[in-house]
Amino acid sequence: MPEEHTKAEHDREVTAAHGKRAAAIDPLGVGRTPLHFFVVAVLFFAGGAAALPFVTPAIAEYFYQATPLALTHSMTLGWITAGVMGVMYRYVPALTRRPIPFPRAAIVQCVIYTIGVSGIVAHFAIGVWFGIWLAAIVLIVAILIFAANMFSCLWPRVRDGVVETGMFLAVCFLLLAGSLGFTLALDKSYDFLGGSVLTNLASHVHLAAVGWVTMVIVAVSYRMLPAFLLPKLRLPRNAIWQIYALAAAVLGLAFALLFGLRGTPAWAILIVLALASYVATIAGMVRSRRMPLDWTTRHALTGLGWLGVSALLGIILSFTGAQGEAGARIASAYGFAGLLGFISNFIIGMSYQLFAGSVARARAGQGWIAVTIAELSKPRPRTLVFSAFNGGLAIAVAALLSGFVPAAVVGAAAIGVAGLIYSAVTLWTLSFAYRRAVPRAAKSALRAVPS
Ligand code: HEM
Q1: What is the pTM of this model?
Q2: Domain spanning 30-433, CATH class
Q3: Is the pLDDT of residue 166 over 80?
């Protein structure tokens, strides 16, 4: 009996010591939540990358079809949105110095979200609208949990903080885009909406891709790029106006498209001007940088180049519309340049620092042997990933614009190979958040133990 008592006490002491250490390392209680989202994101990216060359002929034929819709949402919801949710769970508590109010709900959210995305992708692929809007309801529940966690941290800093205001508005746009996506799917079953299918679709796409994803990338990069490039964090005062202008322009464009109003090119041009001002700010930081360029910054800068290509195609599309053969070709190329060129380059680049850093923190929180970002990284394939991804993209975009399908498939295959290599290496890095083992580089006898 006394022995049992001692053992129980010992267990309590160990748990308390573990809790104290975790609280000291992770005072905001973020835990492994961001990592769960990163794993989901990379798995969907791998699936999307593998499918890309097979779906590209359908995209080149016409973008609005079952398999392109499934692939688009595997990339936009599975890869991009899950990745961004992980980034926000990692950064928002640290930035606002407030803990997430419902940390357990965040894990439930990750599960519900994964089920919702799998459901929507599967039902898009088989073209069953009933399943699409049911899965959309599941997704909206997950997004509401996410919003509840984010809003309580971000709201007190809205208006004063550029990054926080951008993130807050971005989550509002995600809710809007998700609700409109659900309504569009429901309309296919009950036919209650007026307007044209293509302009309604374009309204959803812009709320999601510009209002949610681009807005959050602008906000996150205002936080991350100065940290990588400059010794001191400095943001110009006008940055908040870029955020407001972008939000107003996306809302204007989405309403004009949805209600068939005039003036879509004017809103499109306002979006481009707000983004041009953002690019000018970032370019200023790059010019005055003190640190050498690494793969994170290379991917981010190449992403900005693709943002320029997307902006040009977007403006042309606002004049031509996506009806007709030429419009449809531009729309497909626009999707590749925007979702893969701009957004995915940013996430890949950011992940090289952020994912390994999050794994190192998570291991420290668990009390496992500490490892460094360098030990958790395999830098060798990065050159191949960067060149195959961006080279393939350039070929695919040019081929989609000119309607030369075999070249588009070759480009898509190069993107697919880059995506699969990236995913394999990244999953290897992430796996160390879930097992005690250390990477081989951390086993050297001469290793300096990280504190
Ligand atoms: C809960 C979230 C979402 C739901 C429920 C949803 C739903 C839908 C639906 C139902 C359509 C087809 C609309 C129609 O046929 O009229 C669609 C198209 C599209 N969505 Fe989403 N969506 C969501 C999030 C996103 C996000 C985050 C993005 C981009 C970042 C996105 C990008 C697109 C694109 C590009 C298309 C057109 C694809 C094509 O025509 O091949 N969606 N979405």
Answers
A1: 0.92
A2: mainly alpha
A3: yes
